[in-house]
Design brief:
Number of strands: 7
Number of helices: 8
CATH class of the largest domain: Alpha Beta
Order of helices and strands: EHEHEHEHEHEHHHE
Largest sheet: 7 strands, parallel
CATH architecture of the largest domain: 3-Layer(aba) Sandwich
Low-confidence stretches: none
Strand content: 5-15%
Strand order of the largest sheet: 3-2-1-4-5-6-7
Bound molecules: NADPH dihydro-nicotinamide-adenine-dinucleotide phosphate
Radius of gyration: 18 Å
Mean pLDDT: 97
Helix content: 40-55%
CATH topology of the largest domain: Rossmann fold
Distance between the termini: 39 Å
C-alpha cells in the first residue's frame, strides 16, 4: 500500500491541483470537501490514471469532522502519512462590516477546523512512526492588508498553530509547515476581483491589473505552483524543514 495523504478542500482550486500532483507522486489520497459531485468526478479521473483515491464528503467545520475524517482515512488506507489542511475561505470587508458572524466563519473554517483535524489525525501518525502536515496559509498569515481583518487574523492564527505544533511534535517524527501563497487564480480570487470591482468602480480586468501591479512579479500565481511546494514538503528531502512558512509570493513578504 502506498503512503496516503488527506487533502481537505480537494474538489477545486488549489486543493484540486494538490490532489492531482500528489496522485502523480504516487500517494493514495483521501479527498475531503462538502459537495460530493465534483470531488467524486476528480477521484474517478485520478483513478482512471491509476491512482488510489477515496472521497469523504463532510463540512470540516462540524465539531466531529476531525474524528470522522481520521476514521475515513484509516478505513481507506490505514494510518495516513500526510495531512494537507487546504479548505479555507476569504471574504473581504471593511472594519465596520467585520461583524462577529464574519469573524466566526473565518475562524471556524481557517483555524478551528485544521486544528481539530490535526488533533484527530496526528496521534495516528505518531503511533505509526511519523508524518507530515502542511497547512495552507497565505501572505495574509505574515502581513496585514486592508479590508481583510477577519481573513488575516485567521491565517495568522493558523500559522501560530503551525509553528507551535512543529515544536511540540519535532521529537515525534511529524513535521508541520505552512505554504503561504499570494493571489492564486481560483474561485476565491475571482470573488476578490468582484469585490474590488464593486467597491472601486473598476471592471474585473482593471482590478486584476491593479492587483498584479501590487506584486513584485506582476502576476497571479497558478495552482500547480502551490501544489509543487506541498509535494516537496511531504517528501523525504524535506524531513528537516519544520515550523516554516514557505511563501510563494514572488518576494512580496520578506521574512
Ligand atoms: P476555493 O474556494 O477555490 O476551493 C475551496 C475548496 O474547499 C473547495 O474544494 C471547497 O469544496 C472546499 N471547502 C470549502 N469550505 C469547506 C468546508 N466547510 N468543509 C469542507 N470543504 C470545504 O479555494 P482556493 O483553492 O482559492 O483556496 C484554498 C486555500 O488556499 C484556502 O485555505 C485559501 O485561504 C488559501 N489561499 C488562497 C489564495 C487564492 O488567491 N486563491 C491565496 C492564498 C491562500 P466545497 O465547496 O464542495 O466544500
Amino acid at each position: 500500500m502506498p503512503q496516503s495523504v488527506i487533502v481537505t478542500g480537494a474538489s477545486r482550486g488549489i486543493g484540486r491541483a494538490i490532489a492531482e500532483r500528489l496522485a502523480a507522486d504516487g500517494y493514495a489520497l483521501l479527498l475531503v470537501a462538502r459537495n460530493a459531485g465534483p470531488m467524486d468526478q476528480l477521484a474517478a479521473d485520478l483513478a482512471s490514471q491509476g491512482a488510489k483515491v477515496a472521497t469523504f464528503a463532510c463540512d470540516v467545520t462540524d465539531d466531529a469532522a476531525g474524528a470522522r475524517i481520521r476514521d475515513a482515512a484509516l478505513d481507506a488506507f490505514g494510518p495516513p502519512w500526510g495531512l494537507v489542511n487546504n479548505a479555507g475561505m476569504a471574504e473581504s470587508a471593511a472594519l465596520a462590516k467585520t461583524d462577529d458572524e464574519l469573524l466566526r466563519r473565518h475562524f471556524d473554517l481557517n483555524v478551528f477546523a485544521p486544528i481539530r483535524i490535526m488533533r484527530a489525525v496526528v496521534p495516528r501518525m505518531v503511533e505509526h512512526g511519523g508524518g507530515r502536515v502542511v497547512n495552507i496559509g497565505s501572505t495574509a498569515s505574515l502581513a496585514g492588508y486592508p479590508y481583510i481583518t477577519a481573513y488575516a487574523a485567521s491565517k495568522h492564527a493558523l500559522l501560530g498553530a503551525t509553528r507551535s505544533l512543529a515544536r511540540e511534535l519535532a521529537g515525534k517524527g511529524v513535521t508541520v509547515n505552512a505554504v503561504c501563497p499570494g493571489y492564486v487564480r481560483t474561485e476565491i480570487f475571482d470573488e476578490t476581483l468582484r469585490n474590488i470591482a464593486d467597491r472601486t468602480g473598476l471592471d474585473e480586468v482593471q482590478a486584476e491589473e491593479k492587483l498584479k501591479r501590487m506584486t513584485p512579479q506582476h502576476r497571479i500565481f497558478e495552482t500547480d505552483e502551490i501544489a509543487n511546494a506541498v509535494s516537496f514538503l511531504l517528501g523525504d528531502d524535506a524531513r528537516g524543514i519544520n515550523g516554516q512558512a514557505l511563501s510563494i509570493d514572488g518576494a512580496e513578504i520578506e521574512h
